[in-house]
Design goal:
Elements: E1 6-10, H1 11-21, E2 26-29, H2 36-48, E3 52-55, H3 59-71, E4 76-80, H4 82-97, E5 102-110, E6 116-119, H5 124-128, E7 139-141, H6 146-163, E8 166-172, H7 173-177, E9 179-183, H8 220-240, E10 244-247, E11 254-257, H9 260-275, E12 280-285, E13 287-289, H10 293-300, E14 306-310, H11 316-323, E15 336-340, H12 349-364
Parallel strand pairs: 2-3, 2-4, 4-5, 5-8, 7-8, 11-12, 11-14, 14-15
Antiparallel strand pairs: 1-9, 5-6, 7-13, 10-12
Helix pairs in contact: 1-2, 1-6, 3-4, 9-12, 10-11
Length: 365
């Protein structure tokens, strides 16, 4: 996807530039740390390109502006951090119910409540289980580098359009604030983007009937039928859009499961334990929804222990455990362990290294 020269960018800026290059025609947001660089970048670069930028009066207003812009035919996006994302959930639910594509970026911070501006991964359940009211899911993409901030944001717009769903790019404060080299994707012209044949648009010279885009249907049977049809689409998403990374998992003594910043820590710990003669593998989902249950289940058929590393006190680990249900009958049951932190505390490589040694010593006894 990427091509050209590498430039040094902050994660927030890479997300913003990739969104512009992907054809984002309208951005609506509201400031909150640690994603403020993103909204500042969009304020300058969207206007410089003659596109729409509005700092809304609230997070709730911003997401509903995205709903309206997308319903009218524009690729549209909003971004925030954890408390702000909570305020957007009603709008995301409305978009899911109306089959409106949108991109929502969450540069997550610690909670609950206002919490702290330090990075966290405690928005996992909110992102992967819909987050708002009703039966729906969002595609969730989790970058672990500034390069992936650009690539996955670029991808998010295509996925949202193809499947007509909200797509969440779930980073965290560490990913958003760090600086790394990144090769940016090519810029698309708005006029070259895929045409939408369902948007409300306007009727001037179109000679067509008016279109309605809404999540409202007061007949229970009709609403259920629409929801079931959407869930059939979700099954197709599961078949086509699962993305993951598996590093040295075959023949490993222990499997580390992590995503985002925690995956970077796990990779560092992997190098430490290998110097001590232990082979560690890493399983990293890139799509948190749909989650790669079957792919992790195949790895778990070895029966080796799994250590989940996450910046929450046990959310991601639930999907790791659910993966074991998918393993082949008669294969050994892997023990799943959790190394979790909360409040903005980031696990260290040394801490993961020590936990690995403790787990393997316990298995040997």
């Amino acid at each position: 996807m990427s091509g050209g020269n590498k430039v040094l960018m902050k994660g927030n800026d890479a997300i913003a530039e990739a969104a512009v290059r992907a054809g984002c025609a309208a951005y609506f947001g509201y400031p909150i740390t640690p994603q403020n660089e993103l909204i500042a970048y969009m304020a300058k670069n969207m206007l410089d390109r003659g596109r729409v930028f509005i700092q809304a009066e609230s997070e709730t207003a911003a997401v509903n502006m995205v709903y309206g812009a997308s319903a009218a035919g524009a690729r549209a996006m909003t971004s925030s951090s954890s408390p702000g994302i909570s305020l957007k959930q009603e709008g995301v639910s409305y978009a899911a119910g109306a089959d409106i594509p949108m991109v929502v970026v969450n540069v997550a911070r610690a909670g609950p409540g206002l919490g702290a501006i330090a990075p966290a991964q405690s928005d996992y359940f909110q992102s992967t289980r819909g987050g708002g009211h009703g039966d729906y899911y969002c595609i969730v993409l989790a970058p672990k580098s500034v390069q992936e901030c650009a690539d996955l944001t670029y991808l998010a717009f295509d996925l949202a359009d193809e499947w007509r769903v909200p797509v969440i790019v779930l980073a965290d404060g560490m990913i958003g604030q760090m600086m790394e080299g990144v090769v940016l994707p090519p810029e698309r012209r708005l006029e070259d983007l895929p045409k939408r044949d369902w948007t409300v648009g306007h009727l001037t010279d179109q000679r067509r009937k008016a279109r309605r885009v809404t999540s409202l249907d007061l007949l229970p049977e009709n609403l259920e039928a629409k929801t079931r049809a959407r869930f059939e689409r979700y099954e197709k998403i599961k078949e086509k859009e699962i993305r993951f990374e598996a590093v040295d998992t075959e023949g490993a003594d222990i499997i580390l499961a992590a995503y985002g910043t925690s995956a970077r820590v796990a990779l560092g710990a992997k190098k430490l334990v290998e110097k001590a003669g232990v082979k560690a593998g890493l399983f990293r989902p890139v799509t948190l929804w749909p989650f790669p249950y079957t792919q992790l289940a195949k790895i778990a058929e070895s029966g080796k222990p799994i250590l989940t590393v996450e910046m929450s006190l046990g959310q991601f680990v639930e999907d790791v455990k659910l993966s074991l249900i998918e393993r082949a009958p008669g294969t050994p049951q892997s023990a799943v362990h959790l190394l979790g932190h909360s409040g903005g505390v980031i696990p260290t490589e040394e801490e993961v290294f020590e936990r690995i040694q403790t787990i393997l010593k316990g298995n040997a006894q």
